[in-house]
Design a protein that fits this description.
Immunoglobulin-like; 2 helices; single chain; 42% strand; 2 domains
Length: 246
């Protein structure tokens, strides 16, 4: 009889051990993981420079999770809780760039940001004078920069239009693409059709503001502000001027 009890006890013990092993083989799912990405850094023109020491921050997390880029521009954000995030890229001399809606989900491997941003330094181009003149159905902007644009010293500019006299890079109806200046003053001519396509009507008074920009403007669509942001503009700019749409 005692032998029967002993065998029964051994069977129970084996059963409990088997259950423990089964539980260990099914651990709780991971709740965080790494985010891996990289950047390419440039001066205000097209010359690539040292990719290291750019700070990349995951916004909205406490304590802060961040990483510093290495010489190849690579970075790893470690142990980030799974979720959807905005990443901010910062370095002295550069305008802050943001990447929205980074989807960081548990796929059993690190989240890799496939799109590599090319980020430039803040523009050193100042706008020292701005004149608008009408000629028939066209309007011409004459933009003087410092330093002066030339074949050997390319400058980059961008203009903003609005019916509001307080037009700026934060208050605009229309913004131009980045423009290349290799002559001083640099002139831009807009036709009546150009201005109509930009959302303005004949006879309207429109205000224009121009800023120095960089080849890589670091621009992004800010989902919180609901507008395009241009981080590399030089705020040293001539006052906005007005013209009447032909």
């Amino acid at each position: 009889m005692k032998l029967h009890y002993l065998i029964f006890g051994l069977l129970v013990l084996l059963g409990l051990t088997s259950c423990d092993k089964g539980e260990d083989s099914n651990p709780e799912p991971a709740t965080n993981g790494n985010i891996i990405g990289s950047v390419n850094l440039y001066d205000e023109g097209t010359t690539q420079i040292d990719n290291s020491n750019m700070l990349v921050i995951v916004e909205g997390i406490t304590p802060v999770i961040s990483a510093i880029t290495d010489a190849n521009g690579g970075f790893t954000l470690s142990d980030v809780p799974f979720g959807t995030y905005t990443l901010a890229y910062e370095k002295s001399g550069f305008g802050t760039f943001k990447k929205f809606d980074v989807d960081h989900t548990n796929m059993g491997s690190p989240t890799i940001i496939a799109e590599i941003p090319s980020l430039g330094q803040v523009s050193t181009t100042q706008i020292t004078n701005l004149v608008a003149s009408a000629n028939g159905s066209n309007v011409t902007f004459s933009i003087t920069t410092n330093p002066a644009g030339s074949n050997g010293n390319t400058r980059y500019v961008r203009y903003f239009l609005s019916t509001d006299s307080n037009v700026s890079n934060e208050n605009y109806t229309y913004y131009s693409p980045g423009l290349i200046s290799q002559i001083n003053p640099y002139q831009i001519t807009l036709s009546q059709n150009d201005l109509t396509s930009a959302g303005f009507s004949s006879g309207q008074t429109v205000f224009v503001k121009v800023y120095g920009d960089s080849f890589w403007s670091n621009e992004y669509d800010d989902l919180d502000l609901e507008r395009k942001v241009f981080p590399n503009l030089n705020m040293a700019s001539a006052n906005a001027i007005s013209f009447v749409v032909p």
